[in-house]
Amino acid sequence: MSWSLSGKVVWITGASSGIGRSLAVEAARRGAWLILSGRNVPALEETAALCERARLASENQQNAQKDEQEASPGARNHAACTLLPFDLADPEARLEAAQKALTIHGRIDVLMLNAGVSQRAKFVETSADVFNLIMETNFFAAVDIVRAVLPQMCSHSSGVIACVSSVAGLMGAPWRTAYSASKHAQAGFFSSLRTELYGSGIQISIVYPGFVRTAISENALAGDGTRHGKLDPLQKFGQNPEVTARTIWDKLETGKLDIKVAFELKARLGVFLSRYFPALFVRSISRHGGL
Fold first, then answer.
1. What range does the domain containing 96 cover?
2. What is the CATH number of the domain that holds 49?
3. Is 198 a catalytic residue?
4. What does the pLDDT look like over 8-60, one tens digit per residue?
5. CB distance 161 to 203 below 8 Å
6. CA angle 108–110–114, rounded 5-degree value
7. Total tally of structural domains belonging to the chain
C-alpha cells in the first residue's frame, strides 16, 4: 500500500529536536499539514520555522497556491504547522493533547510517535521512579495516544501509525535496562496491533534507528534522574538525522512495516549476535559498554 504525505495531517511527538525535528521538516517539504508536539515551546517554534522555510523552498508560489486549493476542507483554513506542547509523561496531559490534535484539522492521517527518553545507568543504580518514568514516557504514553487516535482512523478505514523505536528494541545493552525494556514493549505492542488491524486500511509501522547524530544520549537519564550530559561516540559519528528522516518517510510511503535505518555494521552485527549467538554477544557488548 503506497501513499503520499502531500495533503496529509501528520502529528509528530518529540518534534523539538533530533529525528523528530528532521521528520517534521521533511514532511513539510513533502506537503504535509503538521501538528508538532514536545515540551520545549521555543524549540518547537524553531522547528515550525524550519518547516515553513522547507515548504516554501520546495514549492514555487503558483504550486503552493494550487496545493492550498486542492487541500482537503479540514486542512484548508489552518496553518501549515500547529504547535501542541505537552508533557508526554503526564497521563492527563497526553490524553487532553490527543483530543485537541483530533480537532485541529478534524482528523489525523499519520501519527508519528517519536518522543522518548533514554537511560545511562546500571539497573541496580536506577531508582524505581526513574525506571517507571522511562516506561511511562516511551511505552504507556504511546499506548494511550494510539487508544485515543485509533477510533477515528478506524472510522475512515485509513491512517498510518508509526513508532520510532531503537536498535535497543532489538537487543539488550548495558546501562539501558529501562530504555531497552520500553523499546521491546513498543515492538510487542505495535506488532500485535498490526495483526489485529490487518485488512483495516491502517498501516502500523515500527522504525528501528541505529546510530543517528542526535542528543538522545546527552539527554538520557542517570539513575537518579539527572541528565547524563555526554554524547555517545557512535552517535557522535552517526547518520545525519536529515538523511534518516528522508529514509523513514520514503519507506513509510511505500507501506513498509518494519524499517531499519542508520544500521551500520556494528548495529547489524549486534542484532545478529544477540539473536543467534547470545553468549558471544554478551561478552562482546559488555566490554565496550553498549551501543
1. 9-266
2. 3.40.50.720
3. no
4. 999 999 999 999 999 999 999 999 999 999 999 999 999 999 999 999 988 75
5. yes
6. 115
7. 1
